[in-house]
Write the structure tokens for this entry.
Amino acid sequence: MWIEPNERKVERIQFLNENGKLIGSMPEVSDEELVSLYKWMVLARVFDQRALKLQRQGRIGTYAPLSGQEAAQIGSASALAPQDWIYPSYREGAACFVHGFPMKNFFLYTMGHLSGSDAEGAHVFPVQIIIAAQCLHAVGGAWASKYKKENSVSVAYLGDGGTSEGDFHEAMNFAGVYQLPMVFFVQNNQWAISVPVGKQTSSKTIVQKALAYGMAGVQVDGNDVLAVYMTMKQALDRARKGEPVLIEAVTYRQGPHTTADDPTKYRDGSDVETWLAKDPLKRIKLFLFEKGIWNEALEEQEYAKAEHTVSEAFEQAVNTPKSNVKELFDLVYEQKSSQLAEQQQSLASEEVWK
Amino acid sequence: MTLLTMIEAINLTLKKEMERDERIILLGEDIGKNGGVFRATDGLQAAFGPERVVDTPIAESAIVGAAVGMAARGLRPVAEIQFFGFIYEAMDQMASQAARLRFRSGGRLSAPMVIRAPFGGGVKTPELHSDSLEGLFLHSPGLKVVMPSSPYDAKGLLTAAIRENDPVLFLEPMKLYRAFKQEVPEHDYLIELGKANVVKQGEDLTIITWGPTVPLVRQVAEQWEQQNISIEVVDLRTISPIDEDTVLESAKKTGRVIIVHEAVKTGGPGAEISALINEKALFYLSAPILRVTGFDTPYPVPSVEDDWLPNAQRISQSIQEVLAH
């Protein structure tokens, strides 16, 4: 019997529709959890908009905005246990904050500071620039967890573009073969810089790629934080039992790829309009209002608080002493070679001539 | 004391280290039941189980990338790349990931791991197996590159490599795997990485080499000894970092230097060593520094590889040339 592409029907998990109305029955989640999810999303949005502004003012360097993806990132990271690990790409600041990565250091990263990728003990791997390379580190992390019986799940965050890379496929294959405690969390935000997902793969969905690796997968509405949160909980349960999982969170990158890019060159305004109507914050906010556990006063208060948190983190970053070129030499090996020592020394003597 | 070939010495080292430290995991293609295509891991899966000696799918990038992830989370992976010619598949994971984890994490994380790979010519492999690509990694800060030339060195260097807290590329000359036996102590000993070995003292000329060409160079040096030409042979053992002190001391002593390696000439490690001597010992030299290396072509087909690799004749020609000054 032939198997045909795209013949399997994929049903997207959704709890809240675009207008914040519950579809089906209410999942088991407390009001506190719901409010906490929303508060994190507010913080993520405020952080993102501030970062964008700071970049425009020349106060930080290149930044990859995450607006539109708050539900996917906050929903997934909020389901993690403390012992779990995140292996992020560069657009995952919000997920990293939830899991303990200091916001100050994210600012430092964008400011080109040496300690920008220092998680200060949080279980967050350094931001990965090489697309999908982090998937293999997550495999190794999950492998170590299984070997040492740490009960820790490794989550590789990547985008739809990342699924075209060899490292993604090699990682999926390894995770399947060794049944590793791993979640591949793909934020399908429709665009990899200027290339739409339809040109990235001829698969109708990304989640169906799981099947080829003997893995379970699920597609979730990535703008529905409730759906992402509940689905990630299930995924983590399966992964913890040694069953790797692929999640495709369907979402949208509302802004540019990075601050160095102009998306009006390659995508229609109507595309953006359609997706802005599906904004992830709007949806959960309406739901919380409807439920009577949120109101305008709380909303105002929360935004003010978020602004303050972001300001504080940025201040701290600004007040961090600048990196010095001499520090580089001590970070290459545990013990520096005579060559590195000599080069470091040569810098010291050059300063005499300044 | 036991007489062992290099491959036996490597096998013994892996066994001893795995007995000592249960964080050590071996991974690679066909290393389990099959014991590796050269039998470096023969019997280890039977001894330590399939969780510690793991046959992987054929995916070099994943082997190295997974090792990075394991190492960062407290294991000590020793990965095998079946033939070093396949390493390009894993270039990003080697040079951008393993090499830079310490740096990129502000010193918070590190990747203590060993990548072992058979390399070098002389065994008539199919194409793309035998390339000497060590120069690529000499040029990649964050890695150490170690290349043994004898069974004794292989054990001491591999033990040290496994105990390093930084990633080490450990290149095993396949021509020497079973070329000769040597007394190799069973007990624990380490050979410090980054230290060269003067395998033959000499006064008139220095030949700097490593890995597969060390026995060849020694043989040539001994032949010249009969004509009263005293050649010092320096086995670098570690090409990253290079042992500057030993290289410079020898160059200053003899004033004449030849570098022999199988890697292609242009941009090869020989160029680096030559530049180093130029920078720091130029006025001790009596003759130009010469290189006897592979030619600037892709590694050739088996029928001509013996003529392509550095051989006794080419080395002797260069010796004559250097001595003429």
